[in-house]
Design brief:
Blueprint lengths: L7 H10 L10 H34 L1 H9 L5
Helix pairs in contact: 1-2, 2-3
Length: 76
C-alpha cells in the first residue's frame, strides 16, 4: 500500500493487544491493509479536531490570528 501510516510492528502490537470477540487469522499483508485504511478513514476527523483545538488556543491569545487560521485552507 502506498500510504502506509503504521509500521508492521505497530500493526502487530495493536492486533495482539485488542480483545476481539472472535479469533481471526489474518494474513499479515491483509492486516496491514486494514490498519492503514482505518487510519486513512480516521485522518480527516483527527485533523479537524486538532485544527479546532489550535484555533481555540490561538483565539485565547489573539482573535485576529485565530480568524486567519480558521479561514486558512492550506494543505493537510
Amino acid at each position: 500500500m502506498s500510504n502506509e501510516f503504521l509500521t508492521d510492528q505497530q500493526v502487530k502490537k495493536a492486533f495482539h493487544e485488542v480483545h476481539l470477540e472472535e479469533n481471526y487469522n489474518f494474513l499479515e499483508e491483509d492486516l496491514n491493509k486494514l490498519a492503514n485504511i482505518f487510519v486513512m478513514a480516521a485522518t480527516p476527523a483527527i485533523v479537524a479536531a486538532e485544527r479546532k483545538k489550535c484555533v481555540t488556543f490561538v483565539r485565547s491569545l489573539n482573535t485576529q490570528v485565530a480568524k486567519a487560521l480558521e479561514d486558512f485552507k492550506g494543505e493537510v
